[in-house]
Amino acid sequence: MNTLNKVSDFFAKYMAVTVVIIAAVALIVPPMFLWLTPNISIFLGVAMFGMGMTLKISDFQEVFKRPKDVFVGALAQFTIMPLIAFCLAKIFQLPPELAAGVILVGTCPGGTSSNVMTYLAKGDVALSVSMTITTTILAPLVTPILTWLLVSAWLEISLSAMMISICKIVILPIVLGIAINAFFGKSIEKFSKLLPLVSIIAIILIVGGVVSVNAQKLLEVGLLIAAVVIIHNLLGYGLGFMLAKILKMNTSKATAISIEVGMQNSGLATSLAMLHFGAAAAIPGAIFSVWHNISGSITANILSKYNGKR
Questions:
Q1: 307 exposed, middle or buried (CB, 10 Å; 0-12, 13-18, 19+)?
Q2: Rounded to 10 degrees, what is the CA torsion of 25, 30, 31, 33?
Q3: Which residue in 17, 117, 147, 288 could disulfide with 296, CB within 3.0 to 4.6 Å?
Q4: DSSP per residue, 226-245
């Protein structure tokens, strides 16, 4: 068990490096990871199940203890990133599928790794967890509606189909994970350090599958989409922090909102893109998965020093 815990800690610490290596290998040797492509939704479901296993009923109570903070955070999440995505797609004149992929990244809820980054940044972890829970619960309704409103300029989209997809690959696995934790919490407590490893491996496999099936396309548009993704992510951090400070929130809360807004559930964006728009639309989500783990670590380090001084 100690060995497995060390492996889990290693992957958690070096997740960004691992994702980059897997993405590079998948780009150079696509056949090695092509078998993963049809199972991307399953891998995301596994990652969401792992997230659910870490949640307790008390985590949901926190949402109702501070409704104003959570409301501001959720509103920032579902306005800042979608609007930035739409503007970038227009400014860079992206092809329809790539535009849809960028917008999907923007309309998805916050990513689970944002909670870890908020902790490292000495931010308000309880607020970060509450925001992740809230935006994830809202995702089956809000993500399809926002995507429909913004993507309709390029492509047609089925609202009902996307809602069902999110319920299947996100909500259902999370609820199952929470239920198991509620009923068998003591029995699985000794495996708690391994749960992040499950989610990390699932995300790594998703990235490998998407990169492999889009290897040729990535060589053609990779730099352009990488630039769009980096701008999108960094603006999310900056505008999230600015909005919180404008509303006179303290630095700890502003840190949580900044990281939560900037770090998206790109695994969900990738899966939805594959299901509803095609392989090319999954490229922005795959690149975002690689980049936001790198930028999140750097941002957490910067904000940690800033919060430490304060």
A1: middle
A2: 60
A3: 117
A4: HHHHHHHHHHHHHHHHHHHH
CB-CB contact of 213 with 279 (8 Å): yes
d(CA 275, CA 38): 10
Show Cβ contacts of residue 263 under 8 Å, excluding neighbours closer than 6 positions: 110, 111, 113, 114, 117, 233, 236, 292, 296
Per-residue pLDDT at 2: 64
CA distance 27 to 209: 10
- Residue that has been written with the tokens 């047609």 in this structure: 156
* C-alpha of 229 from chain center: 13
d(CA 280, CA 274): 8
Tell me, what DSSP letter sits at residue 92? Answer: T
* C-alpha to C-alpha distance for 59 and 128, rounded to whole angstroms: 11
Q: Which amino acid is at 222?
A: G
Report how far residue 211's alpha carbon sits from residue 206's, in angstroms, rounded to the nearest whole number. Answer: 9
Mean pLDDT rounded to a whole number for the chain: 84
Q: At a CB cut-off of 8 Å and minimum separation 6, what does 89 contact?
A: 98, 99, 102, 103, 154, 228
For a pLDDT cut of 90, what percent of the chain falls above it?
Answer: 27
Q: pLDDT confidence of 267, banded at 50, 70, 90?
A: confident
Tokens of 169: 């690959």
- Which helix (H) or strand (E) segment holds residue 153: the answer is none
Neighbouring C-alpha atoms within 13 Å toward the C-beta of 289: 34
Q: Which of 34, 97, 112 is nearest to 225 (CA)?
A: 97
Instruction: Using the Cα atoms of residue 9, residue 174, residue 287 and residue 76 in order, give the sign of their dihedral.
Output: negative
**What predicted TM-score, i.e. pTM, was given to this entire model?**
0.86
- Distance linking the first and last C-alpha atoms of the chain: 40
* 264 beta partners: 110
d(CA 234, CA 14): 21
